[in-house]
Design the sequence.
């Protein structure tokens, strides 16, 4: 005799009503490979079920199934959560995969784009490009808009236009009570505030309405590669680069990263304008010299492809066992230039346990910092720089994880007092229940109030989602 389906499975199957490819369960062959598809293979998660609904009504009915069976719920868009939170982050949750939510239309009167929550960023660009429109977002084309535009959504054009989250003007969302409703600055305003920074705690968005800009005609992209014998040799280049990005007057059309990796360092960047405009800024003369310099003038779509290629070199879209930590810096908490050689020297001396390691310093600020800190749940408006470490191990060893944790400790020890804040897009399960304050800072208390109103039973839950009760 076969295993009898659970009450949850019976309920989900009733919602699916015989549709092929609607739901997968742990009893299915190749469940992890075909249905779960974890991004971080070091975080082991087995959802109670993975469902691929087709309508908001499906999602509403599925939430009833979850509540009836006392099962937590999380939505998965592109599935790039560093701790597999789109799958629940821990076993036993109902994962709602939004892969079928691919709708798109552009309102030619408002230039607002209506985008299904399962659409990946690369597809968004392909749909907007023929219409000559764009908005700010990250450079990885396989990231889903559902998580990206609700957690921040930082990218090279963010200094010019703000984060992806700042372009959201309205959403359709299914809330814990099963209602399908709209949220905006004029409708369900408190819910909208929470969704723009912490959506995984409040509901499942099925459609975004995004403000767009005219697509830039010219884009200048550059990379300076430094083949140093040691990281310590790269320290002066980093100091020069940090001094540039710390200048509040540097052109907002300019986005850049400094990347440490086993064989040296690289500076990459993008300028949204012509080559003549780039030259007029004087930025090139403020960057450290290099033996290898690449300068490319692109159109918008070519620039996105170039960024995606660079991203793939350092943050692969392939599922791997990996670990990451991050920290945001204000101008006041940047690593002092006198400490940089010491940090880079320390990095040289460590046994990392892998050759697949990268430490990325990514400039932010500009338009991201224009809105007040409490204008949305995203609280890191004051940051001008993010660092992110990223290590891959096959398998991921304790030694490799220790290198990442110890590097983070070194950064905290060297940065001025008050350096804090982790980007929720680089979620760090090692922070435990301290993560909420790192992700949302002074906005967290308000988020708890929104949680109590819209999800009092904590249906939408992952290991570091907004809690109903104060964190001790």
Sequence:
């Amino acid at each position: 005799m076969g295993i009898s389906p659970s009450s949850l499975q019976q309920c989900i199957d009733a919602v699916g009503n015989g549709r092929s490819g609607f739901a997968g369960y742990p009893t299915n062959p190749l469940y992890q490979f075909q249905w779960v598809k974890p991004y971080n293979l070091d975080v082991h998660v087995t959802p109670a079920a993975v469902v691929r609904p087709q309508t908001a009504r499906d999602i509403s009915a599925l939430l009833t199934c979850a509540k009836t069976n006392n099962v937590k719920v999380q939505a998965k868009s592109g599935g790039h959560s560093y701790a597999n939170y789109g799958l629940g982050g821990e076993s036993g949750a109902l994962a709602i995969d939004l892969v079928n939510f691919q709708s798109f239309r552009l309102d030619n009167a408002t230039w607002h784009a209506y985008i299904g929550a399962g659409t990946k960023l690369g597809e968004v660009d392909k749909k907007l490009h023929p219409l000559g429109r764009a908005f700010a977002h990250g450079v990885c084309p396989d990231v889903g808009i559902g998580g990206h535009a609700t957690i921040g959504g930082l990218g090279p054009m963010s200094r010019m236009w703000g984060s992806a989250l700042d372009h959201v003007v309205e959403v359709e969302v299914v809330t814990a009570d099963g209602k399908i409703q709209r949220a905006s600055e004029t409708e369900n305003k408190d819910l909208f505030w929470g969704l723009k920074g912490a959506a995984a705690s409040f509901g499942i968005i099925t459609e975004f309405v995004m403000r767009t800009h005219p697509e830039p005609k010219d884009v200048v992209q550059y990379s300076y590669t430094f083949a140093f014998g040691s990281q310590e040799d790269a320290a002066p280049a980093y100091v020069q680069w940090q001094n540039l990005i710390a200048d509040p007057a540097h052109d907002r059309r300019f986005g850049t990263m400094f990347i440490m990796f086993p064989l040296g360092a690289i500076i990459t960047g993008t300028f949204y304008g012509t080559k003549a405009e780039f030259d007029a800024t004087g930025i090139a003369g403020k960057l450290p010299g290099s033996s290898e310099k690449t300068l490319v003038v692109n159109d918008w779509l070519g620039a996105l492809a170039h960024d995606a290629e660079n991203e793939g070199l350092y943050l692969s879209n392939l599922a791997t066992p990996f670990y990451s930590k991050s920290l945001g810096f204000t101008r006041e908490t940047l690593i002092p230039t006198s400490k940089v050689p010491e940090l880079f020297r320390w990095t040289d001396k460590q046994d990392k346990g892998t050759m697949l390691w990268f430490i990325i310093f990514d400039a932010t600020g500009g338009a991201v910092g224009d809105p007040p800190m409490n204008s949305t749940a995203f609280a890191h408006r004051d940051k001008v720089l993010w660092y992110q470490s990223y290590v891959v191990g096959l398998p991921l060893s304790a030694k490799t994880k220790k290198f990442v944790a110890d590097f983070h400790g070194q950064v905290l020890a060297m940065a001025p007092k008050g350096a804090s804040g982790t980007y929720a897009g680089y979620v760090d399960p090692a922070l435990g229940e301290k993560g909420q304050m790192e992700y949302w800072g002074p906005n967290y208390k308000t988020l708890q109030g929104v949680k109590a109103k819209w999800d009092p039973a904590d249906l939408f839950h992952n290991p570091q989602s907004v809690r109903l009760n104060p964190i001790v």
Notes: The chain has a mean pLDDT of 94. The chain has three domains: 7-97, 104-215+437-454, 219-433.
